[in-house]
Design brief:
Blueprint (H helix, E strand, L loop, with lengths): L5 E7 L4 E4 L5 E14 L5 E13 L1 H9 L5 E14 L5 E14 L6 H5 L10
Parallel strand pairs: 4-6
Antiparallel strand pairs: 1-3, 1-5, 2-3, 3-4, 5-6
């Protein structure tokens, strides 16, 4: 037996990108930021932000299109999926996505100055 399940609560990092397949199914993609805060040995506050690639299909993608914006606080539940491709130099590249099957909006839009800090890095090597 095995389990592939992930639960995240975080803020949307960019306006969702919405695409439509030939069969009419919509897909929403966006980065989601989760963070962890602690005090280091000197008592200084440290925050670590993780960025997750979120993909949502079908009716949930339509909901994202209508109601989700940069900064929106979301509960996302789904599975982890890793895909690979060859870049322009012929190197094998990997991306890990969270394929969301359950979505809940937990709050309104985050304050603009908080939403813009810690922007996702699109140049990550995976």
């Amino acid at each position: 037996m095995s389990v592939n399940k992930v639960t995240l609560i975080g803020n949307v990092g960019k306006e969702p990108e919405i695409k439509q397949l030939d069969n009419g199914t919509k897909i929403a993609n966006f980065p989601l930021a989760t963070s962890e805060t602690w005090k280091d040995k000197n008592g200084e506050k440290v925050e670590q932000v993780e960025w997750h690639n979120i993909s949502i299909f079908g009716k949930l993608a339509e909901i994202v299109e209508m109601f989700v914006n940069k900064g929106t606080l979301l509960y996302c539940e789904g599975k982890i999926k890793t895909r690979s491709w060859d870049d322009k130099d012929g190197n094998k590249r990997y991306t890990t996505d969270i394929i969301v099957s359950e979505l809940r909006m937990l709050g309104g839009k985050q304050k603009e100055n908080e939403a813009s800090k810690n922007e996702p890095n699109d140049d990550l090597p995976y």
